[in-house]
Amino acid sequence: MLKLHAKSDLQLTTQDREGKMKKRLLVILLMIMVFLSGCWDTKEPERMLYINGIGVDYKDGKYEVHAQIINFANVAKSELPPSNQPQAEVGFATGKTVDEAVFKLYHSIDQTVYWGHFSYLVVSEEVLKNVELSPIIDLFIRYRETRYQIWVYTTTDPVQEVLLVRPVINKAITLSKLGDPENSFKQESFINPIDMRKLIIDMNEPSHEAMIPLIKIMENWKSIDESIKAPVLSGVGVATPNGFKGFIEGDDVRGMQWMSNETKRGQVTFKSDGDEFITVNVEKVKVKVHPVVQAGEVVFDVNVELEGIVSVIQGEVSMDELKKGIMKEVEKEIKTTYEAALKKDIDIYRLSEDLYRKNVKAWKQYHKDGKVELNEDSIRNLKVKVVKLESLRKSIQETIE
């Protein structure tokens, strides 16, 4: 009996220990749950303001920063927000550096600013002419909230005016041409958009020149109540790590789209033999550049292949005549752009990079500061060929004669 009694006491002691252990584990779990239930560093969305666009100007030796803050209450639920409420407001501040101007801007902002939706940066002509881009780029990409896919533009118009432009039919401002350029680029590839990642690459690699899309404000839309201003792509501003080389715009910049494999869609307008204007849509561009070293200098052979669609026909015209007209006009536009850029010492087609990629030994021999010397004869051969031409109709004759 004594042995049984002793065993019973031992069992009770073990059960007590297990019970106490379970209680301790329960207490620890409860404490952990209490700590996990709160996120002290989380900020409520309604207590933050969201940056969509930034404009930087330079006046009287100081930077002027313009910040476009968007109202997500108007854009989060629908692509077409209520028209009676502003989608964005723009504030500005000045400083001896861009960083100082940003911090001065915080003085007048009511809530914490969130930079994770920062979509585009606009720099003025004065910024490109008078200061380096590097400190401005560094400031914005070093925020842990920002991304490298921030679109970059330049303008000769007031920066604040660019940020105050609203999309046509009051579409969500996050889907504007500035904030979402790839969408419209698929339909009309006049100027290639550039983000900060591509800008840094172009600055660092031959020929150390970046083509920044030039935005101008035009009042070319109207509603029942008002005229509407819209941002228009009108050319490129060419920036280098050490300065600014100027703008190429208007008809002088049209050749860029035919020298880029990224082109999705463009148009060519020319006169037929019957003295009628014809427009052809170009749906695909394929460019090959072959650098050649001859007689102690570098020249380039360029082949451009196009695929087009004819949608409108005026007068009698043959397929051969259409192809001939397209090739002649595209070749003319490529040369016009090249010559306009050459006057400003701009390697508009980045021919120096082609030599660097395909013959680095020759590039090391002939480059100066990463760039190969170019002249009017540097493009030795330029061949434009229409490899495919279709009509949206079954024939290429006029519908009504």
Automatic annotation (TrEMBL):
The keyword Coiled coil does not apply. Pfam families: Spore_GerAC (PF05504), Spore_GerAC_N (PF25198). InterPro entries: GerAC_N (IPR057336), Spore_GerAC-like (IPR008844), Spore_GerAC-like_C (IPR046953), Spore_GerAC_C_sf (IPR038501). Residues 41-217 form the Spore germination protein N-terminal domain. Transmembrane segments: none annotated. Residues 243-369 form the Spore germination GerAC-like C-terminal domain. It is a lipid-anchor. It comes from the Bacteria. The keyword Nucleotide-binding does not apply. Keywords: Germination, Lipoprotein, Membrane, Palmitate, Signal. It is found in: Membrane. Belongs to the GerABKC lipoprotein family. This is Ger(X)C family spore germination protein. It comes from Sporosarcina quadrami.
